[in-house]
Amino acid sequence: MIKFKNISLLILLCCSPLFVLAQNAAVVTVSGEVLTPLELKREDLTAFKPLSHKVKDREGKEHEFKGVALIEVLEKAGVTTGAKLRGENLAKLVLIQAADGYEVVYSLPEIDPEFTSNVVLLVTEKDGAPLPAGEGPFRIIAPQDKKQARWIREVRSIKVLFAKD
Amino acid sequence: MKRSAQIRTGPVHRGHKFLNVRWLILSIFVVCFLISGLRFADNKAEPYPLVYPANFGGRINVPSNNPTTREGVALGRKLFYEKKLSADNSMSCGTCHRQKLAFTDGLAFSVGVDKSLTSRNSMSLVNLLWVRNFFWDGRSASLEDQAVFPMTNEHEMGQSLETSVRKLQQTPGYREMFRKAFGEGDIDADKIRKALAQFERTLISADSPYDRYLAGTYQPTPQELRGMNLFMDAPAPERQVRGANCGHCHGGPKTFKELFHNNGLDAEPADSGREVVSRQAEDKGRFRVPTLRNIALTAPYMHDGRFGTLDEVLDHYNEHIRDSPTLSSFLKGVSNEKGGRTLMLTSGEKADILAFLNMLTDTTFINNPAFSDPD
């Protein structure tokens, strides 16, 4: 296991400019039961309607998050939303995974405006600046959740899957 | 059955010599065919029940092309302790993964066949059934894949899979064991990996005092209970809740969650860990959060074995977290005092957490004869 590592480290050190190039830019991927898989950079979200949401933290200080509606991103990927969200599509779930391996699930109707007036946001900014390391570049904000455990930070992947029985 | 009946009632007795020989040969063939069929049915590998408490959850990983069977596990166990899998016949998986030490080796870095050191600390092999990304950096996606690294790495067992296959073919007993586990066909590298993985999936630890406490059959001491609460709770000085928040990363009935974090060992990590796998700068210095099961037995600690005792580990979390751009946000600015910059646990509280960590030692697991060297 070790030799392999040493060699790769060596190569990476020798070509550090390449190393920078070789680093993947931070993206969020949308995959699974989609028509068009997506790989979105922060800038790509400007194509969607901007939304914001204000939250008070534990000390009572207010923060403003800016981002887009998660449903718009899913629609861009061709997920079965709106009129198509019926029949077996109601057995689909949205699995969101973070850089640290943390995972949460939403069901499609929890996100779809034809089912709910709650809006789940995919945000990239807090108080006018990009989300800090450890929180961004992408985070989910679900204002209707009283407990913030599904406000998942450092989102790397969004997968639409059928629930398996 | 129909065909053998035909043989007995066939026109053999009427024919001349030549016909007789033909029928003899044919009937030998048919009998052999039937016997082999019967033997195959006899030896069809029997499913191995993987038994674990319901609160461990059923998100287990067994690939559909390698179901766990009694015969496969028996073979995997033998291979796990087989020194012929190393270049100089001196070491097996069990050399660096000793059952008495919860399948670690007590060393900061292990020594390979070429007498050089591994670059990371040997990991405990326990409850691997629930792991999805193996090694400290999560670079291997299955136990079947993982096994190739130690076998072929020149600083570990240092032997090609072809050589291993040949050595096993020349060792009495193995052909039969492979046949029982995987049916007809010769020994090959794929089967070695599969058998090892099957054995490793059976290494389930679920009988520590903490497990028994969760099952309602063990009453912890007051100190263990205090330690458990400190371990699980996040500190909230504004609500007078004291805690160490270990459970955020190490919690749950298995005391294992598959997460990757930078737990503040270094400001500038020498080993960049997960970053090499994901090629994302945010992952620098992130490592898999290891299981704390049997933690009292698996010193030294961390991916480089830098801490010799659990006291040192607690001092680290309490006093020496090193800040860096990728330090886990769950270890930043977490304190038991308002405005505190470190955890600020008292020495009594550290002793309480230590008492809880000792509750995670599963002596049934380390003494289970099913996991020991069969020879």
Helix coverage percent of residues of chain B? 25-40%
Can you list the strand order of the major beta sheet of chain B?
1-2
Q: Helical percent range of chain A?
A: 10-25%
The structure class of chain A reads alpha+beta
What class, by secondary structure content of chain B?
Answer: mainly alpha
In order across it, which strands form the biggest sheet of chain A?
2-1-10-5-6
Named CATH topology of the largest domain in chain B: Cytochrome Bc1 Complex, Chain D, domain 2
Sum up the overall morphology of chain A in one term: globular
Question: How many strand elements of chain A?
Answer: 10
Give the overall form of chain B: globular
Arithmetic mean of pLDDT of chain A = 88
The N- and C-terminal alpha carbons of chain B lie at a distance of 42 Å
CATH C-level name of chain A: Alpha Beta
